[in-house]
Structure formats: structure tokens, C-alpha cells
Amino acid sequence: MKISFTTLGCPDWDLDTIISKGSGCGYDGVDFRGIQDIIDITQLPAFTSDIAATRQRFKAAGLEVSGISSSIKVCVPDQRAANVEEAKRSIGVARELGCDQIRVFGGGDLGASSREGLADIGRGCLEEILALDGARDFKWVFETHDLWIKAQDCALLLERIPDPAFGVLWDMGHTARVGGESPEETYAAVGDRVFYTHVKDAVYDQDHAEAMQDGWRYVDPGTGQLPLAKAIEVLKENGYDGWIMFEHEKRWHRELPEPEVIFPKFVEWIRPLI
């Protein structure tokens, strides 16, 4: 397995700092979810007109781009055209950077449609995306997020889209903390379609000033109550050799530790487990 970090964890860093600090901390790769004030990197010169130079900078630092984290929500019908356009841009960027994964969300509105109906909407959107030129050169991974956290719900999309280019991004924290599933339960349902992972830890501490609405708060990896080590063990036992990505959400939770502090801690914690 290889390890990477998301740029959500370093929202104040420019590209030079992302590359130098990431390499210096001992990571194998970077997952892009924005740089500084811009979330959609496919709109930035470093990933368009200057992308050849960007690729060389990564190569020189010994880093890969582990994923492009898009804002695509495949189960939102009104976003269909925007989804396809973002997919086109993401394909070009991923190809130039040698990246294998493009993240999408499920999303949707259960007030307007059943979950099965949303899955049908998602199938239509993904079929259009997968028909794009070059789309099947990549893995399109939908995150265990929002309405699609429980494995049985994820299976609704997976069953409709058996294409080998489509699979799951297993956010180990979401399936345990929100979905209430053990790693074994999640893997039994979707394991053969897991192409990518997110890792972050948390504790239930509803009276703490930094607790989220559900009473949980994020903590250093390995110090919380989530079964992360067990989930990684399950992956190893089943031959997973993909990315383990540290999803430090500093962009959304400014109270979290600075990347200079937490990024090395993750490397120290994860290396013995993989």
C-alpha cells in the first residue's frame, strides 16, 4: 500500500509547499481537493497550461498524484451537465499527471426521490461520464459519504453500474462513525469494488467545544475510537494494494492541528500498519 494526503489538510499551502512538505514528510502521493482559495484545480494554470511543468515537479520530488477529488454529484439530476463538463476536465488533468482515481459523490435528495430512484439517476450520469473519451482509463470512485455511507446503500449504485471502471472510495471513518458498521461488514458488502480509501480518526465527546453536530470530534490518527487499524488489517488480508489517504479536513475545520504538525504524525502511525 502507498500513503497520500489530501490538500484539504493544508488549505494555506501553495503548490510548491504541497510538493516539498509532502515529500519531506515521507508521503508517496497527494490527493487534490483544492489549492488555497480554489477548490476545482482543473481551472488552475498549474493543471492546465502549465501542467507539463507541474508533472515534472512531482516527478522530481518522488511524489505521485493519488487522486483528483471532484465535486461531481452523480445522483443530482440538475447537476448532470455540470458533472459531465467537470468529468471532461478531470480526465485531462488525471491523464497528464498519471493519476488513476477520480473521486465523485453520490448526493441526491431523498425528499424528491427514493434511494432506488437516486441510484437510477446516478447510473444515467455515470454511464454518460464513462462514455467520454478516455474515461475508462481511470477508476471513478464514489465516496461512502452523504446518503451513501452504509454498504447496503452503496450496493444500489454498484449493482446498477457493474463497469470495472466504477467502484468505491471507502471512508473508514464514515462507515463506522455514521454508518454504524464494522470494517468486516463494510468489506463483505463492497470490498471487491474498493479502489481507494480515506482515513481519519475521531472520538465521541459531545460536550467538547470542538464536537461536531453528531457529538464526534476529530483527533490524531490512532488515538480515537474508530476501527481504523482493523479496517486496514481487513484490506491487507484481502490483498488490497492501493492508496491509504489521510483526510485531514483542515479546510472545513480550522480548529484542527496545522499540517506541519499532523502530517508527520500520520506517517509515523500508518507505516507499521501497512
Brief write-up:
The protein has helices at 15-25, 51-61, 80-97, 115-130, 151-160, 172-177, 183-190, 228-237, 259-270, and strands at residues 2-6, 29-32, 64-73, 101-105, 139-143, 166-171, 194-199, 201-204, 216-219, 243-246. The chain is of the alpha/beta class and 274 residues long.
Task: Explain what the structure shows.
By secondary structure, the protein is an alpha/beta fold. It has a single domain, classed as Divalent-metal-dependent TIM barrel enzymes (TIM Barrel), CATH 3.20.20. It has nine helices and ten strands. The strands form two sheets. The chain has an eight-stranded parallel β-barrel with strand order 1-2-3-4-5-6-7-10. A two-stranded antiparallel sheet has the order 8-9. α1 links the parallel β1 and β2 (29-32). α4 packs across α5 (151-160) and α5 packs parallel to α7 (183-190). The N and C termini lie close together (6 Å).
